[in-house]
Amino acid sequence: MKEKLKLEMKEVASNIRKVREFRNYTQDYLAAKLEISQNAYSKIELGYSKITLDRLFHIALILEVQVMELLYFDKNNFISKLGTSA
Q: Which residue among 1, 8, 70, 71 has its CA within the 20 to 30 Å range from the CA of 57?
């Protein structure tokens, strides 16, 4: 169970990175918005740091997505949403 949770957290971290890159945001930008260092933010994306629920909601707010999109990222759905919001 613990290993499965660790894998899922790595996936969430990867999803955060994917959405950030789609938005063309830098790690520095997100770190500044979260009021943490770029190094601390990098550890979030690499899955080295645990993400609190508050932090996950804050990241979703900055990235302009629902938390569920960070938990279960669907590239095609995300791209189609970008197209309709433009």
A: 1
DSSP line for 56-73: HHHHHHHHTS-HHHHHS-
Could you read off the pLDDT of 10-30 as tens digits, one per residue? 999 999 999 999 999 999 999
DSSP assignment letter at 26: -
What pLDDT digit, counting tens, does each position of 33-57 carry?
999 999 999 999 999 998 999 999 9
Quote the tokens at residue 11: 């996936």
**Domains along the chain with CATH numbers:** 2-85 (1.10.260.40)
* Contact in structure between 82 and 22 (CB atoms under 8 Å): yes
Using CA atoms, how far residue 28 sits from 57, 74, 83, in Å, is 18, 25, 26
